[in-house]
Task: structure prediction
Amino acid sequence: MFTADIENRGLVLDPRTKLFVMITLVVFALGGTGSDILAVHYGTIVISILPVALLMTAKQYRKAAVFGILYTLIKSAEIFIVPNITGAVLSVIGLCCLIFVRLMPGLVMGAYMLSSTTVSEFIAAMHRMHIPQQITIPLSVMFRFFPTVLEEFRAISTAMKMRDIRIGGRNAGKFIEYRLVPLMVCSVNIGSELSAAALTRGLGTEVRRTNICRIGFHMQDFAVAAVSGTVYILWILGMTGVVK
Result:
């Protein structure tokens, strides 16, 4: 999910467009901005489904179906079930719906962004926006951190299966220890190595770096940005009392 596949990423979007969609999801889906305005509420639902559509354009149909069905079920439960229950059940179901509905769109968009954007494209976009290196370097390291950690996680799982360390096996008690301890050690080492690699490539120098990646805004970027920007317009209109 987190590995960039530029051959099958479908709709090619500028990294800045993806960042704009991500910020919009954080502001409205996660932050709940304008949730008391009906038009913004419906607009937030549309924006929350947008990452699923982007996954489908990247031919990640299975992931798109899983996230789409899960979001639809949880959102339906929030609309139709939560208002009709009371007591402890309301607290449990309402809290679960609230957490998933707000977190899931941003997580899905983040997964799509990591799987469809190369590090070079992301760095080029950061330079175009004149983002300081103190922000660019950690974010560029993050783009390689998650795929590398997932590879280590798979290697650890394979080694555990070879030694019959699994849930229900003879060594089930050591399952957590043998999985978490190597993973934490690998994560620390991976972070240090990726930071050193980023600095070795000249990301920490004051000289302006060149980049062969071609990034820019096209029709699909304007379309996606227009859909995302509509929520801001509805919010402003709602604050001024034009829409409800």
